[in-house]
Amino acid sequence: MFCTPKLSRRARVLMLSVAILYAMYTLFTYSTFTLLPTAEILSKMEGSQYHETPKSPPQRTNQKKLVDNTSEISSYSPDLNGNPVAGEADPEKQEFIRNMIRHAWSGYMKYAQGSDELKPLSKSNMNWTYLSSTLFTPLDSMSTLYIVGLSQEFNEAKSLVINQLNYDVIKTDINVFETVIRALGGLISAYDLEQDKRLLDIAVDLADRLESSFRTPTGIPNNMALRALEQITSIKTSIEGLAPKTLNSQFLREISRDYSVSAETDSYYEYLNKLWISTGDIRYRKLYDAAASAIEKYILVRTPNGRAYIPERHNDVLGLEFHHLSCFAGGMFASGAVTLKNEHSDRYIEIAAELTRTCYDSYQIRATKLGGEWTRVSQEGDLYASGHAYHLRPEAVESIFYMWRYTHDPKYREWGWNIVQALETSCKDDVGYHGLNNSGKPFDRQESFFIAETLKYLFLLFSDDQTVDLNEYVFNTEAHPISIRGHGRRKDRKKWVEIPQPGKFPKNWNL
After folding, report:
1. Which residues are catalytic?
2. Cα(415)–Cα(453) distance, rounded to whole angstroms?
């Protein structure tokens, strides 16, 4: 048994965030646990020592009103054709997307306030857990509402979180990964942006509760903030650099020879380069370089007509289709190419452009002009729709956003605007936005990530480069921006949390 070291509140939440985000998809994508306070769980474990769980967050008091940041967007200077100059904002399209965000949020507030998500067609709500809400939509929406300057709506979301979020009443199992990226990520990002300490208090409370789920016999993910690199790099896989979709966490060996960059492994790959950018620890970048090389060599497919896509690899056989979740990879390859120039950069930015184009074209082959969950690809590179299900997913617009920021090629804004129009035509209803089922018919759910990710990336696509500057922020999987060391709320070096080296544990951490 071991006890948690007496680290500072900031250290606890940041170390746990890094730990969970680093390896969650590889190890615990579908793990669940009960959100009891750490002290309550450990008190039932004979011989355990523990620290007390922080008290419940204080009740909301009068708060300062956010200043609408619309006026802070840089001036609009059209070129000879009336288009925005590269890197500058397009206020007209920003306002259109801001109204989309306002519409999605107002529907939630009217018909689903206090619940996890809106069901717009039935004008009702749904929760992820039985008889209780984890407030996923407010938690997921705060950073978006703040960035786009919707002051009233931001304060509504924050008020719900501060006054109604109560993890003590949630006695059923919850999804660890989704709770980390939506709830913990949303809290940390909102605090980072606005610095309301009450949000940090809730984040610390949640992090303390989540910490108990990492107490496993193998140390995976025990002490993950300390031993992540040692453990991850010791995983026995058939292909070096690739993360297996299924893993025996006790013996650190793959269970099957299945690899992909979509469900169950996507966030693992995404966070490698982002953790290097965020912390400056070169070990993460080395892992990213190894992963990018392995993806290119063993999974990436490039067709005769110039397409690129990443299917799933099962027992050394590559599939003939790709999942929408894999469409984030265009942005990942672009970021890797730009943030550290090396002999692979030119090739990787080319791969990024090809992946992004393939994902955008998968939207265009469908009558709805929205991407399906799966798209088939012929040997020549022709695309065919494998159904029409669309769950308001963000991955394609995420890569389009990154490609715009890194290249300022106007086609990416054109693609993004086409997707905006398709959302308005096929998914908008009178109280929000619905998804589509496999037949292309309306599906009664407005996912919380629609505001958190899809609409945020679309808004930023038409913002100037200083709005959530990629030199100062990284996005977590749920598109919650968190400042990089040396920037924003993490500019003061005195407040940095030391990055533990492999094998070096705090003296008061009893193993």
Report:
1. 178, 266, 373, 395
2. 17
